[in-house]
Amino acid sequence: MKILITGFEPFGGESVNPAYEAVKLLPDMAGDIQIVKMEIPTVFGEAGKVVETGILQHQPDAVICVGQAGRRADIGVERVAINLAEASIPDNAGNQPMDVKVQEDGDTAYFATIPVKAMVKNIKDHGIPASISYTAGTYVCNSVMYDLLYLIDRKYPSIRGGFIHVPYATEQGVGKPVGTATMELSTISKALLYALEAVAGEDKN
Amino acid sequence: MKILITGFEPFGGESVNPAYEAVKLLPDMAGDIQIVKMEIPTVFGEAGKVVETGILQHQPDAVICVGQAGRRADIGVERVAINLAEASIPDNAGNQPMDVKVQEDGDTAYFATIPVKAMVKNIKDHGIPASISYTAGTYVCNSVMYDLLYLIDRKYPSIRGGFIHVPYATEQGVGKPVGTATMELSTISKALLYALEAVAGEDKN
Amino acid sequence: MKILITGFEPFGGESVNPAYEAVKLLPDMAGDIQIVKMEIPTVFGEAGKVVETGILQHQPDAVICVGQAGRRADIGVERVAINLAEASIPDNAGNQPMDVKVQEDGDTAYFATIPVKAMVKNIKDHGIPASISYTAGTYVCNSVMYDLLYLIDRKYPSIRGGFIHVPYATEQGVGKPVGTATMELSTISKALLYALEAVAGEDKN
Amino acid sequence: MKILITGFEPFGGESVNPAYEAVKLLPDMAGDIQIVKMEIPTVFGEAGKVVETGILQHQPDAVICVGQAGRRADIGVERVAINLAEASIPDNAGNQPMDVKVQEDGDTAYFATIPVKAMVKNIKDHGIPASISYTAGTYVCNSVMYDLLYLIDRKYPSIRGGFIHVPYATEQGVGKPVGTATMELSTISKALLYALEAVAGEDKN
């Protein structure tokens, strides 16, 4: 089983993005799971194109994109992506869409096709807080999740796809308002590995 | 320099207390700081008595008590303890004081005599979120901090004393409401060590 | 212009539901808007059926369902309903669906067809906090919003539809954890009126 | 019975302060309670001097200062003021003290001498969320509460004194981050009246 896992480059004034930092800490092989890691741009539209390049190059069985959700305290496995782009801050190319479709001819929404319940369960069974999330927002995270599921729906039906949101890394919490939740990068990375195990395990059954 | 650092036993239905778990992970020596670790009961009055036993036995230069603050996201170095005990849940001996003084003849409050600003700064300089807190609540945490500072004021004026609140450990977050902040025990323990360094450093200057 | 506005009966152990209480405070006429109010059951499936009964009986130009969102501090105008029913507590008929579709043959999601941006703007312009929400959850609120938009899509294309989430009423905050946000019923009701004005105004343009 | 109640002028970039706005809505007489209202400056030191002027002029039986606590959702009756001034933003005269005593020769802290439990109970009994707070912070609110209790301790022992924190007014919530709790000014004002009733009632018993 081969899984392509992506993480965003930093955005919004942060110097690191815990998503890609945690992805980088993953091993290349975990049991019989081959893990291919890729950094993608925090840019509407571009992110999805880079993901498709990765799909074509690596022919994965599943694709999981990972992004930062600064206001969350746990690992959030996303259930649904919606066909809507709205940005309260510009992306890394200066785009700031408002009330725009991600794909003109796409469905209103797509559900993740990875086993979100099993993923959350496996992460929690290993002692790391996690939950299903029912909104990936309307920024580049939702946009690339939508693009991925749209691509799968139209062109790559044998691939499973989804998205995971992760909290700020511990270091990022310094200087943020008191009360801002954080998680160690090593813990986030372990959680991602448990998520991948669940994807691979489901696939076997 | 010898520092006595204490952590509470579990309470409130939790099976572990991140305070003592993190204390246990500390080394016995850090530079020229000798670290003496002690578990104390989560019981009003008793906690302070056990702390005094530790003072008599170990003759420390400073005493720092550590407790869990489930609703915090960062390391909270407490600035003040107040002469008031109020419990919304019973302590581990079944006591549930309401509107009671910690010490009949004590001051209304005592400020910590450890260098809280330097401690917070050193923790943050090492990439771990921390802040000064101006309330240790009214449960056993505040009570033992008050008892410690009362003892120092009356009987052990050469000792410096204070209290540190720590978040839930990561594992404790599983099963708690989504949004509950946590921190790795190893990170909490590192933060405690940076706090001790600041106490020792201040002492040298 | 005739608008049908519904509020749920109490659920989850609450003795009142601020949604219907606020709906009841609305006038029957506001300018040239005729307001028809209806209480609907907090029951998966049934809620949507009662809404359709209201549509058939009153032939409204728009239908807005209103529900309580206990963890919100402002008026939340929902943007999208998803084809998923998951309940962490039973509804008022004892149903507790998990990972079930709202409508077997429905789309993955429907966007609200009321002018959510104009509604939020008009509420805020009158000094009441409001925002667009991108998840109505997976409980009966999302379910009835989905049912409404499904009905509109399939059978009543000339009707506009959507959903508004409101905070706890002030009285409900007594006894809840410190930090629980609330809003006066009279304020919630005014916000609903400003929302209806925006729906009617958009219709004129 | 005569009660002097004060509210701060706006600060921190806000155009109104819900504290004084709510105070202004109070009647001049409530049963046999004579209510004297006074606006005080949001300035360290000055606030306390103006309060003393009010004491000398009006000879009240009790003094209650009221301030805004932007991050709270309920009415917070303060239990204790500490001898510490630390400001993260300048006050209205540009002062920004850090680690400074409020009164050089004052106690470490003073407890409120108004009946905080009875006040919270009476507010809640009337359907408005309230709780005892154990920290008034370290800004001008804590400072004036400290000054008041210091004055009472040293010079006016027959007067009772304390402090109440109130949330943002509803209008202030517009433009603030989603999730910011607010309360109607009329509700805040009612809560203050119920608090005064409890002060007067306690006095009779």
From TrEMBL, chains A, B, C, D:
The lineage of its organism: Bacteria, Bacillati, Bacillota, Clostridia, Lachnospirales. It comes from Faecalimonas umbilicata. CDD domains: Peptidase_C15. Pfam families: Peptidase_C15 (PF01470). Removes 5-oxoproline from various penultimate amino acid residues except L-proline. This is Pyrrolidone-carboxylate peptidase. It is an enzyme of class 3 (hydrolase). PROSITE patterns: PYRASE_CYS. One of its GO terms (molecular function) is pyroglutamyl-peptidase activity.
